[in-house]
Amino acid sequence: SVSEPAQKCCTENIQPFLTSILEELMGPVSSGFTEVHSLFDKEVNEIIQDFQKTNDMARLKENVDQLMTLPFDSVKMEPCYLKVNLLQELLQDLKSRFKVYHIDFVIQRTQNFMQELMENAVYTFEQLFSPSRQADLAKVATTIEKVKLRVLK
């Protein structure tokens, strides 16, 4: 007895708006994940540049170890998280129109996914590139670049 009125309500009052709502919400979400991508790229590029200047394998290992802490570095991850905070304004409109509650939870979960993505990226990078396995110093920077591109893919 409830199914038919519920389907009618969804078909008339919600479904026509879903596409536009998703497009609107995906803007901040996409820009947040793009920021994660850019941050990882920037950090690995700094490791490459530092190694090219020093050719120091011990320092390279320290830099890679430090990269592993990136997902938990709130200062460096902050720009990524700020992009998603724009959802606060967008979801306020949805809250009044569609009774969407727990806006903070949606933002927090999105930020958690961003942190998880960064964790996966640095873990994969570390697994594919281990400074201790590199024998030829001349090829280290090239290897780091190749691994970075593979992770970003």
TrEMBL record:
Residues 8-153 form the Niban 1/2/3 domain. It comes from the Eukaryota. Pfam families: Niban2. Signal peptide: none annotated. Belongs to the Niban family. This is NIBAN protein. It comes from Daphoenositta chrysoptera. The gene is Fam129a.
